[in-house]
Amino acid sequence: MNWKKWICALMALLCLAGLGGCGGSAEDDAPQGDLLEQIRQKGQIVIAMEGTWAPWTYHDETDALVGFDVEVGRCLAEKLGVEPVFVEGEWDGLLAGLEAGRYDIMINGVDITPQRQEAYDFTTPYAYNRTAVIVRSDNDQISAMEDLAGMRTANTISSTYAEVAESYGAQVTGVDDLNQTFELLLSGRIDATLNAEVTYYDYMKAHPDAGVKIACLDPQATQVGIPLRKGQQTASLKEALDQALEELRGDGTLTQLSEKYFGADITQAP
C-alpha cells in the first residue's frame, strides 16, 4: 500500500467533511453562529453610522465622533462587556452593509417602518421622532403635509423622510447628507426638505442666520430602533440589546443623553 497516497486521500476527505485543518476554522463558520457570542469572543461590537447627522452622529470641532447615538452605542457596548467600533458611511450603504454582515448593528436614528421590518429585526424603540417640513423663511406655500404634492424635496433616497415626502406627492431628489440638503434648499433648487424636528433645531443652533423655518410637522411620531440582520443568529443579541436599553431607560441614562444633545427628552413615547 502506498501510505503517502493513502494519507493524502484521508486528508482530502477530512477537508471535505470540515474536520481537518485544511484552512478551515471556527471563524469561517462565524456568520452561521450566534452573533452575540461572536461579539463577546472578539471583545468588540461593530456599529455603523453616518457621522454627518448632528446631533445623532457627527464630528465636533476637534473632529471627534460624537452625538446621541454615539453615546448610546458606547453605553450598549459597556452593557455587553465589549468595546464599540464605529464605522462611518453614507446612509444608503449602511443598511446594505448590515445585511451583508459588515456591521453587527446600525445606530443612526433609524425609524422603524413596516418595509424595514420585513428586511431587518429591530430592538425596542429607544427614541421617538416627529418629522418636520423645512422650507426657506420666505416660502409660504406649505402649511400642511398635503401641500407637499408637486413640490421638490431632497433627502437620502432610502430614508424614511424621502418615503414620507413621496407619499404626499413630492418629487424627491437624492442627496448624500444633511449639509447637501440644506445647500439645495437655500439655493432654491428644492422647495422643502423633511427631517427630524430635533435635527432642525440643532441645525439652527449652529446656523442661526440660515433663513429657514419649519412649515409644518407630521402629526405622527415615528419610532427609532436599532436594526439587526434577520435570523436566529441575531436573536440573543436583540434580547441583550433590549435588556440593555430597558436598563438605560430605567436609570435615566437615555433621558440625560437626549437632553444633552436635543435639549428635550425624545426617549419617552408621546
Description:
By secondary structure, this protein is an alpha/beta fold. The chain has 2 domains: 130 residues, D-Maltodextrin-Binding Protein, domain 2 (3-Layer(aba) Sandwich); 94 residues, 3-Layer(aba) Sandwich (D-Maltodextrin-Binding Protein, domain 2). It is built from 10 helices and 13 strands. A 4-stranded antiparallel beta sheet has the order 6-12-8-11, sandwiched between helices. The radius of gyration is 23 Å and the shape is globular.
Layout of strands and helices, then pairs:
Blueprint: H1 3-17, H2 35-42, E1 44-49, E2 58-59, E3 65-66, H3 68-80, E4 83-88, H4 91-99, E5 105-106, E6 110-111, H5 114-119, E7 120-122, E8 127-136, E9 152-155, H6 160-167, E10 171-174, H7 178-186, E11 193-196, H8 197-206, E12 212-225, E13 227-229, H9 235-250, H10 253-262
Parallel strand pairs: 1-4, 1-5, 9-10
Antiparallel strand pairs: 2-3, 6-12, 7-13, 8-11, 8-12
Encode the helix/strand succession as letters. Answer: HHEEEHEHEEHEEEHEHEHEEHH
Give the mean pLDDT: 88
Overall 3D geometry?
Answer: globular
Quaternary status of these chains?
A: single chain
CATH-level-2 architecture of the largest domain? 3-Layer(aba) Sandwich
Number of DSSP helices?
10
Q: Any key phrases for this structure?
A:
D-Maltodextrin-Binding Protein, domain 2, 2 domains, globular, four-stranded antiparallel β-sheet, disordered N terminus, 270 residues, alpha/beta, three-stranded parallel β-sheet
